[in-house]
Amino acid sequence: NSLTYSKNKEPKTYQKVLQKATLVVQSEVDRCVVDIMKEKNINPEKDASFKICMKACLLQISGYKQLYLDVESVRKKPYDSDNLQHEKLLLKLWNLLMPTKKLKARISKQWADIGFQGDDPKTDFRGMGVLGLINLVYFSEHYTSEAHQILSRSNHPKLGYSYAIVGINLTEMAYSLLKSEALKFHLYNFVPGYLVYEFDKFWFEEKPESIMYFNVYREKFHEKIKGLLLDCNVSLTLQI
């Protein structure tokens, strides 16, 4: 913020250098740090830590912006059943979540077993594109036992919910937090955390009357996460 809103009383050239710094790409970070030091008359020998700290800050700023662009690029790719990689990824999700149960056909009512709504999961990705599938596979592959536990809990006779649909919905939540820059502090602290596990705990703690109240509790959970992200020291760790 101090770079973006540099005061008008600063010399015009210095003000421009500061404001440009927040838009810098990774390949230009070193040059930008040199420009800032030059305009501010900072002696690299007397204040050696400035260059290191400023570079680290600008790398985080540029990295966050690049991450959003990369995520947005994936989100814009619709699931394509003619794309072999997409189909392999979808089948991988099934095998990760249902290792002892064979999928009888590509289009099948079996997809409901892992929380898809239709016989063909491609119709459920919609706004999140292939990003929703990538997130489901990532969580299932790297946190397999937790994914199995949550899938089992999602079949609760009273508090059950559609595992895959909720996972895609939480991808949209994470995407919106990234886009609004609410995730900055969390990502700057370099600690991994996952919404799927936390939402499952939240859902069972709240004990909603039925799945019909999903949107109400989704927003409540969303507000809870946004509140946590206001803390500059936040790190949303996976508590197992």
Automatic annotation (TrEMBL):
Pfam families: ELMO_CED12 (PF04727). GO terms for molecular function: GTPase activator activity. InterPro entries: ELMO_dom (IPR006816), ELMO_domain-containing (IPR050868). Residues 85-240 form the ELMO domain. One of its GO terms (cellular component) is membrane. It comes from the Eukaryota. This is ELMO domain-containing protein. The lineage of its organism: Eukaryota, Metazoa, Chordata, Craniata, Vertebrata.
